[in-house]
Structures are given as C-alpha cells and as structure tokens.
Design brief:
By secondary structure, this protein is of the alpha+beta class. It has helices at 2-20, 26-104, 113-125, 143-146, 156-169, 193-201, 208-225, 250-256, and strands at residues 130-133, 138-142, 177-184, 233-237, 258-265. It has two domains: 2-81; 110-265, 60s Ribosomal Protein L30, Chain: A (2-Layer Sandwich). The protein contains eight helices and five strands, in the order H-H-H-E-E-H-H-E-H-H-E-H-E.
Length: 267
C-alpha cells in the first residue's frame, strides 16, 4: 500500500506541474488520473497476492515442521515396536524349548508310584477324552470333547475328569507335583464374533494364540477349585505352533486341538 501511495503522489505531482505550466489540458489530466487509479488498483491486487503467497509459505513451513516431528515420532515408535517384537520372539522361542523338554520327558524325579497308578486309572476311565503318558507325565485332553467350538467353557464330562485329577493332585502323596497346562489349536482362524468378544473380554488377542491361553486357564481354574495350589500351576498357550498331525485334514485338525497337562516333581 505504501508503494501504491508513493506512485500516486509522484504522478499527481507531475500532473500538477504540467497543469501549472499550461502543458496539459483537462482531458489529458483525467486520462492520466484514470490510468493512475488503475495502476494503483493493480498494485493493491499484487500486494494482496504477495500477502496470500506469504501466508501459504508460512503454512507450508508449519506443516513441514509437523511432518518432521511426525517422522521423528514414527522412528521412535518403530524402534519400540521392533524391540517389543524381539522380546516376544525370544520369549516364544524360550517357551518352545521348554515345551520340547517337557514333551521328551525323562528329566527330574519321577512321579510317586501312587500318583502314577491313579493317573493311569483316570485315563482308563475316560478313554475318549484323556490320554496319559507315564514316561513324560503328560495328560492330553481332546479339545473337541473338552470344549465347544470357539469356547473356553469346559464341558461337563471333561470338568468331572479334571475335578478327579484335582483330587489326585491335592492328595498328600502328590503335594510336590507341579502342573504345566498348555493349550493348542488347529490352523483355522478365529472368525466367530462370540469368540472374538470372549477373548477381548479376557484381554486376549482375538486369534488362536489367545484361544489356546484362555482354554489352558479354564482348566487351571478347575484344578485350583479342586484344591491344587495356584503356586503349583503354570498355564501357557502355544496356538497352532505345535501340530501333532496334518492340518489339511479334519482328523488332523481334531488331533491338533488339545490341552496338555505336564506333571513333574517340584521342590
């Protein structure tokens, strides 16, 4: 605006000089004045354009600053996620190694003979539900008989068998026996909405890993209700990572859906 006013002033001064010397008539004066107004208007428009451009530049600079901060935050978040992933991977690998040692058996003091005989009798009482391996101290419950599809609620027959197992483990002769309960699934994805809602309510991931953990914990609750101390029980979920059979067949999937209880002598 200052620049436009200066131009107007100079033009008017020149015109007045010419009028005073008699060199310019009224029409020429009016024409010059009109052109001056047009130039002044044009200068004002250009000044407005410059102001708008300046605002845009400042806005772009602000966005660039925000973008830079977002990039820095993204890098920090990515590093944190990668660290957490590595920790989870290590924990999972450690869990796999522990499971393999349990499955092989032969480590540590054998179960008391009375306990071993009682477990064999329990397995014989529920042949379709339960298998017992005396060499490894492993009890394997068929998941389809233990749970409904997508559920962590133990079915009545399985609950009865687990209650009898709790009676065995809470006896005086089994006071030093510890139980590691591990849940397994097949490779079918968790897609049923009731199952997803159930796992979310338990703060579990809505996948096979979460379902295997929830089922192991349900089994543990029955044992604790039957008198087995919580300090003697560990629960874990391995999802679909440890199949016993081919997941491409219905029979293979049924075998892979299971809950295993490994019994071993503790301190």
């Amino acid at each position: 605006m200052r620049r436009a006013s200066v131009v107007v002033g100079l033009v008017l001064a020149g015109v007045l000089v010419m009028l005073s010397t008699g060199c310019v008539d009224q029409k020429k004066y009016d024409a010059v004045l009109l052109r001056n107004r047009e130039q002044d208007k044009l200068l004002q428009e250009k000044d407005a354009d410059i102001a708008r451009l300046q605002e845009r530049v400042e806005a772009m600079q602000a966005r660039a600053g925000d973008a830079q901060r977002m990039l820095e935050q993204k890098d920090e978040l990515l590093a944190a996620v990668q660290k957490e992933r590595d920790e989870v991977r290590k924990a999972f690998n450690d869990l796999m190694e522990a499971y393999k040692r349990l499955a092989v058996g032969g480590v540590g003091q054998p179960l008391p003979r009375e306990v071993d005989i009682a477990l064999q009798q329990l397995a014989a009482e529920y042949p379709g539900l339960l298998q017992y391996d005396s060499a490894t101290g492993r009890l394997r419950f068929a998941s389809d008989i233990t749970f409904d599809s997508g559920s962590n609620a133990v079915k009545p027959e399985a609950r009865t068998a687990l209650t009898k197992l709790a009676t065995i483990l809470s006896s005086d002769v089994a006071k030093k026996v510890h139980a590691t309960i591990i849940g397994h699934t097949d490779t079918d994805r968790v897609v049923r909405q009731p199952t997803i809602e159930l796992l979310k309510s338990l703060s579990k991931p809505a996948n096979n890993q979460g379902l295997s953990e929830a089922r192991a914990e349900s089994v543990a609750e029955i044992l604790k209700a039957g008198g087995v101390e919580a300090a003697r029980i560990i629960t874990q979920g391995l999802g679909e990572s440890q199949p016993l059979a081919d997941n491409r067949t219905a029979d293979g999937k049924a075998r892979n859906r299971r809950v295993e209880i490994f019994l071993a002598m503790g301190a």
